[in-house]
Amino acid sequence: MTETKWTIHGREFANCNCSYGCPCQFNALPTYGKCWAVVGIQIDQGHHGDVSLDGLKLAGIFKYPGAVHMGNGEALPIVDKRANAVQRESLLRIMSGQDTKPGATMFQIFFSMLSKVHDPVFADIDFSVDIDKRRAKLNVPGYIEQRGEPIVNPVTGAEHRIRIEPVGGFEFKVAEIGRGWTKTSGPISYELADSYGQFAELHLCQDGIVN
After folding, report:
1. Is residue 65 part of a domain?
2. Which pairing describes strands 6-16 and 57-64: parallel, antiparallel, or unpaired?
3. How far apart are the first and last CA of the chain?
4. Does residue 1 form part of some domain?
5. Are residues 87 and 58 in contact, defined by beta-carbon separation less than 8 angstroms?
6. Who's near 139: CB < 8 A, 6+ residues apart?
């Protein structure tokens, strides 16, 4: 870890292959024994040292053969192509956990469990998320097509609303839980359908969640 300090404040949507209640959030093994996840992030305000990251977007495709903590995963980091060279380097350092206290953020934890990181992609990231309404869309041409929606009551058809509120977490304080559909292409290719989705505000720094 270097001495460079950073902060990002924004919003995320993540869709993984687990059932709606994602056992991983409760320190249990993934629903199907493996963890496949795709994440989109909008940075509303942020910096890495003196480098502004305001308004930039990130995405990532992850594939672990078992639970994340078992390692041997692979990932494709995707960075907003509007970022200049310095901003790209800053974002990649944050995403890979290089300037983060060990175990403090999901970036550092998830990347430390990888055995293969594909070359980063710099692309147009079309991402929108409404946390309260549990709706999101993420499109990265040639790599990701994703959408997030609320869980629906199977009897009444009404939108179901439920949250996760970890204590001492490393990603968010509160997440609205919904469902998602994702299709990925490129070096990591798979499809997720009607599986766990989370919509959350992120406020992170090199030491973890900003209180």
Report:
1. yes
2. unpaired
3. 22
4. no
5. no
6. 125, 126, 127, 145, 146
pLDDT digits (tens, 9 = 90+) for 131-162: 999 999 999 999 999 999 999 999 999 999 99
**What sign does the dihedral 9-110-78-23 (CA atoms) show?**
negative
* The pTM of the whole model exceeds 0.90: yes
How far is it, in rounded angstroms, from Cα 95 to Cα 113? Answer: 13
Report the C-alpha gap between 89 and 99 in whole angstroms: 12
Q: Which one, of 196, 60, 193, lies nearest residue 134 by Cα? A: 196
User: Measured between alpha carbons, how far is residue 139 from residues 57, 130, 136, 147, 177 in Å?
Assistant: 12, 16, 10, 9, 20
The answer to whether residues 202 and 41 touch, using CB atoms and an 8 Å cutoff, is yes
Question: Would you state the structure tokens that stand for residue 37, as one six-digit string?
Answer: 């996840």
Quick check: 6 pLDDT over 80? yes
Cα–Cα distance for residue pair 121/166, rounded to 1 Å: 32
Q: Alpha-carbon distance 129 to 40, whole Å?
A: 9
Residue 41 near residue 11, CB atoms below 8 Å:
yes
Query: Which residue segment(s) compose the domain that 52 sits in?
Result: 6-209
Name the H helices within the chain: 85-95, 106-112
Residue 60 CA to chain centroid, in angstroms? 7
CB 59 within 8 A of CB 144: yes
Q: How many domains is the chain built from?
A: 1
